[in-house]
């Protein structure tokens, strides 16, 4: 459900759409300084109204979810208005074309009527019936053509709007997925003096990705341990849930929020970066990288080590 407001929050703060959070904060501060009731004693009622409106506008725009929904609704309305205007302009053009064609038909009919003055009454009557029938057929064909063109245009507009809405929904889902940090829940049961603390857990799991936070370790009713590890959003692969721990103390892991696979754009960027790095290497650097992890042949190991020394 779209957020409803009795005012335009951008206008209240004097901002344009697409402004940053810093712009919102700065504008709110300026409005507070300008309309604080203590600074406007001669117009306190108006100042209080403006001050409260600025606060509500700031709270609304600083909420990314509400602001995004508000902006999407604005774009939909703007698109509908533009489509309606274009449709009306096209309809006006079609009507003008239709009127011009009718006027041309009437002119042609009048010219043919003048030539029919030399016909007998029966011939003139037959000619008139044929002309009227021809005009009706042409008029009906023109009407169907205009209606079909209008229907095609409406269908095309609906398809464009559907694609726009679908793209916005996909972008919203992608943004929501990016905002969620992969979170792994851990369970284990201490034995004797063997247990895990936050430092040990960090050492075990930091190899899987950057750790944002580890929640305090809790003890369950059955004496087990429970905590959650929140990774940075750059973690895109599974694997941490298979970690079994160290010192023989087994850990069980399950994803509360699983990692999101990288988007196609991110994959393409990563491949392009690797290609760029390889392209910028010299022959010696490329050769060194390719053979860095290779074990030297047995007969050459001694020679290689001697050269390194």
UniProtKB/TrEMBL annotation:
Q: Which PROSITE patterns match?
A: DNAJ_1, DNAJ_2
InterPro entries the UniProt entry points to? DnaJ_domain, DnaJ_domain_CS, J_dom_sf, Nucleotide-bd_a/b_plait_sf, Pre-mRNA-splicing_ERAD, RRM_dom
The Gene Ontology biological process terms listed for this entry are: spliceosomal complex disassembly
Where does the UniProt annotation locate this protein?
Cytoplasm; Nucleus
User: What main location does UniProt list?
Assistant: cytoplasm
Q: Which UniProt keywords apply?
A: Chaperone, Cytoplasm, Nucleus
Q: Return the annotated region ranges for Disordered.
A: 110-131, 167-191, 250-279
Q: Which GO terms describe its cellular component?
A: cytoplasm; spliceosomal complex
User: Which GO molecular-function terms appear in the entry?
Assistant: RNA binding
Q: Which CDD domains match?
A: DnaJ
Chain ranges of the J domain:
8-74
Compositional bias (Basic and acidic residues): 167-182, 264-276
A Pfam match: DnaJ
What is this protein's record name?
A: J domain-containing protein
Q: In which organism is this protein found?
A: Cylicocyclus nassatus (Nematode worm)
């Amino acid at each position: 459900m779209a957020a409803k407001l009795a005012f335009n929050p951008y206008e209240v703060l004097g901002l344009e759409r697409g402004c940053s959070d810093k712009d919102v904060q700065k504008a709110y501060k300026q409005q507070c300084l300008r309309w604080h009731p203590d600074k406007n004693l001669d117009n306190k009622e108006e100042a209080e109204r403006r001050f409260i409106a600025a606060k509500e506008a700031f709270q609304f725009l600083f909420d990314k979810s509400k602001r995004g929904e508000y902006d999407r609704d604005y774009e939909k309305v703007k698109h509908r208005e533009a489509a309606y205007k274009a449709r009306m302009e096209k309809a006006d053009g079609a009507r003008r074309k239709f009127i011009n064609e009718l006027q041309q038909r009437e002119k042609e009919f009048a010219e043919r009527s003048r030539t029919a003055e030399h016909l007998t009454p029966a011939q003139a009557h037959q000619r008139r019936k044929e002309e009227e029938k021809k005009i009706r057929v042409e008029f009906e064909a023109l009407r169907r053509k205009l209606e079909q063109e209008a229907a095609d245009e409406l269908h095309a507009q609906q398809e464009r709007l559907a694609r726009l809405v679908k793209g916005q929904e996909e972008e919203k889902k992608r943004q929501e997925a990016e905002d969620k940090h992969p979170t792994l829940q851990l369970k284990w049961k201490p034995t004797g003096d063997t247990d895990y603390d936050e430092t040990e857990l960090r050492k075990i799991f930091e190899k899987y990705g950057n750790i944002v936070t580890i929640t305090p370790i809790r003890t369950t009713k059955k004496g087990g341990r429970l905590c959650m590890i929140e990774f940075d959003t750059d973690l895109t692969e599974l694997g941490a849930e298979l970690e079994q721990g160290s010192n023989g103390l087994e850990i069980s892991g399950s994803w509360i929020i699983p990692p999101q696979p990288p988007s196609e754009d991110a994959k393409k960027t990563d491949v392009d970066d690797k290609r760029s790095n390889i392209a910028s290497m010299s022959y010696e650097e490329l050769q060194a990288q390719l053979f860095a992890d290779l074990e030297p042949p047995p007969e050459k190991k001694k020679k290689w080590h001697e050269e390194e020394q």
